[in-house]
Amino acid sequence: MISAVVVAGGKGKRIGRDISKQYIKINEKEILAWTLEVFEKSSEIDEIVLVVPGDDIEFCRKAIVDKYRFAKVRSIVAGGEERQYSVFNGLLSCSGKTEIVVIHDGVRPFINEGLIKRTIEESREFGACAAAVPVKDTIKVVDDKKFIISTPDRKILYAVQTPQTFRYDLILRAHREAMEKNVLSTDDTALVENIGYKVKLTHGDYFNIKITTPEDLIFAEAILRNVK
Ligand SMILES: Nc1ccn([C@@H]2O[C@H](COP(=O)(O)OP(=O)(O)OP(=O)(O)O)[C@@H](O)[C@H]2O)c(=O)n1
Ligand SMILES: C[C@](O)(CO)[C@H](O)COP(=O)(O)O
Which of 59, 67, 98, 125 could bridge 94 with an S-S bond, Cβ 3.0-4.6 Å? Predict the structure, then answer.
């Protein structure tokens, strides 16, 4: 069985709006609803575990899950203070039959079914797989006063995205070990790396942006106009 854990338990501070960014509408549909729609339609996905802020559970049930008839959403659970804790809560709520879990940010609405499928196929082979794109800019490593320390070769640099897809037992172990050692990361592949396991990257999509800061809303509208 393949479960999707869609995390939307954040507050969206960097976007500076008075509502959490996952509920901002683009073309009259909430960002979170755009995201869930792709998982609902994907033939690969058997169930969706939706993680939202604890106070929003009833709102999300009515205004998102029931409204758009997302039948695959099996549970809506409360997130934690940090993304990592939200993912962990989602993992604990997956079906007892889950073999593969696809973890995705609720605020990456331009995911597509092909990308979900590709990460699943590679996770079956390698245990852990994440979508990623080659970085387009030259990246600098700097000190705390912003003087450059080094310029890594761009050829070996990738920007990681979600979906990040794992064998269920592996990602659960990685999260449990992180908890035991007080390790905190914004990224699930980092937790798997920390237990000494190799993660495969598969080609992501430059359109698969994470809505993070105000200008991303302008990009999102442009993507919807031109791609969706
Ligand atoms: N405690 C948290 C923090 C984040 N997320 C989710 O993780 C994804 C990526 O996180 P990010 O873009 O950082 O979202 P926020 O934490 O909401 O944003 P900010 O850091 O600007 O407050 C989002 O879908 C967000 O809702 C979550 O489920 N639980
Ligand atoms: C998981 C992630 O989306 C990969 O790009 C990212 O690490 C989330 O991080 P953020 O710090 O919460 O933006």
Answer: 98
Model confidence pLDDT, tens digit, residues 130-188: 999 999 999 999 999 999 999 999 999 999 999 999 999 999 999 999 999 999 999 99
Q: Single out the residue of 89, 90, 101, 82 nearest to residue 192, CA to CA.
A: 101
Q: What is the residue with the minimal CA distance to atom 7 of ligand 2?
A: 187
Ligand 1: nearest atom to the Cα of 52: 28
For residue 109, the enclosing domain spans: 2-227
- ipTM comes to 0.97
Question: Can you give the CATH number for the domain in which 34 is found?
Answer: 3.90.550.10
- How many C-beta neighbours within 10 Å does residue 17 have? 12
Q: How far is the CA of 34 from the centre of ligand 1 (A)?
A: 16
Q: In which element (H, E) is residue 226 found?
A: helix 214-226
Residues 6+ apart with CB under 8 A from 74: 47, 48, 49, 95
Q: How many domains does the chain have?
A: 1
Can you list the alpha helix ranges (DSSP code H) found in 4-61? 31-41, 57-60
Query: How far does the centroid of ligand 2 lie from the alpha carbon of residue 187, in Å?
Result: 6
At 49, is the pLDDT very low, low, confident or very high (cuts 50, 70, 90)? Answer: very high
